[in-house]
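Support reply, case 0932

Customer input (verbatim):
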Amino acid sequence: MAKISVLDQSVSLYSIREEDYISLTDIARYKNQDRTDDLIRNWLRNRNTLEFLGIWEHLNNPDFNPVEFDGIKMQAGLNSFTLTPKQWVKKTKAIGLISKAGRYGGTYAHKDIAFEFASWVSVEFKLYLIKEFQRLKEEERKTLGWDIRRNLVRINYRIHTDAIKEYLIPAKLSSRQTSLVYASEADVLNLALFGMTAAQWLEANPDKKGNMRDYAEVTQLVCLSNLENLNALFIADGLSQNERLKRLNKIAIHQMTLLTSDERMQLPGGDE
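Our regenerated output:
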């Protein structure tokens, strides 16, 4: 459950079936804090609203019930006509509106529909809602890009350590001896890319938590991912640690020169 602030009004969002839904209840609060349900029902009574919802469901919902929809649309405009979100969903098998119970309860709508409702409530509110929603999605995209790169480094690290285990660690080494080999090989990559070992970084940064890779730039993470794969291949080929360090350092210099010259790689998570 995510939240955005639109003209000082908190608006909840959540995802279902990889689609974004926005709280109509929160949008309605911008106009009237005490009559949110009434506002949503009044909006649903509008013939233009029903036609919009019907078209949206036809386009996005193969299970939509057009017979029930036609019956509802015929009643629109009558003084006696009322319609709640739950009734709409139950009768037509609609998926564009959802009623939720509990702490974050209320009426939610697919973003296409929520923007339409926001326009009915306030054109100004709709414009700010779209702006804040787009800002949130952009932040999510950047975060996702960063996580993908971090996970890629972790995956390649497993490939790297498997190569160390298979080619460098004799079967009878103790656990402590084994960990020293892993640390030594990790520092081959650290020296090739960062110019220092993990211990040297910790000594130079006593106030920081984690390790140097946690503070790496996106370009460095991309390069590190490549170096881990290459080191695994060099290990399998039987190259000495000294030779591998020389080769990896040369490759790191070349790759970082290319990556840092690409402006798209300067933003967190990239901008490609």
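We compared this against your earlier run and they match. Two observations from our side: The radius of gyration is 28 Å. The first strand starts at residue 2 and ends at 6. Please reopen the case if you see a mismatch on your end.
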